[in-house]
Amino acid sequence: MLTIALLASAYLGICQETLYKVYGKHTEEAMFIIHGASLPLFAFMGEDIYKSVIAFSRSYPIDILGFRVPHMWAYLAATCLLQWMCISFIYRLNATFESLTVTMVVTVRKFLSLLISILWFRNSFTLAHWIGAALVFTGTLAFADIWTNPNGTAKETKEKKY
Which residue ranges run through the membrane (predicted)? Predict the structure, then answer.
């Protein structure tokens, strides 16, 4: 599933790059349209969402600015805020850099999130995790082109020559 998500994310980056070339770099509008277009798909998960709303509302309350709020709703609000900040950054990054660079940054971020999750929840770091880590870091280093050119990427060197 993570592989499919990475491939879909990479393709979305290519689509966004094309969108920015044709219509200009309007990151907020692109983010609104792309996320708004996906909202109707949540209708297929309506029953699960309803069950989650009930469970969230029944969670123990915490005090936030003098209001008692079920803690799961507070966690959801914090998660949504942080996700919005991250996505906004990714859209701005995609408007500034090439799609491949953004895909590499997002892949490394996802890997670090997975690593933090493994450490936080004290799960075992299996052979599959080590292989995945090696692939992520090898891919990142290959993209940075550190073996053949210590002064920058091959593209940067090519641009300096002209």
Answer: 72-93, 100-121, 127-148
Which residues of the chain, if any, have pLDDT below 50? Answer: none
- Say if 95 falls within a structural domain: yes
H helices of the chain, in order, are 2-23, 27-38, 46-57, 71-96, 99-120, 127-144, 154-161
What is the rounded distance in angstroms from the CA atom of residue 44 to the CA atom of residue 71?
26
- Rg over alpha carbons for the chain, rounded to the nearest Å, is 20
- CA angle centred on 79, ends 73 and 109, rounded to 5°: 160
pLDDT in tens, 41-59: 999 999 999 999 999 999 9
Specify the number of domains making up the chain.
1
- 60 within some domain: yes
Cα angle for residues 126, 102, 140 (degrees, 5° grid):
45
Whole-angstrom distance, CA of residue 64 vs CA of residue 56: 16
C-alpha 131/C-alpha 88 separation (Å) is: 31
150 secondary structure, DSSP code: T
pTM for this one? Answer: 0.69
At residue 62, the pLDDT reads: 96
Contact 49/42 with Cβ under 8 angstroms? yes
Structural domain span for residue 117: 2-123
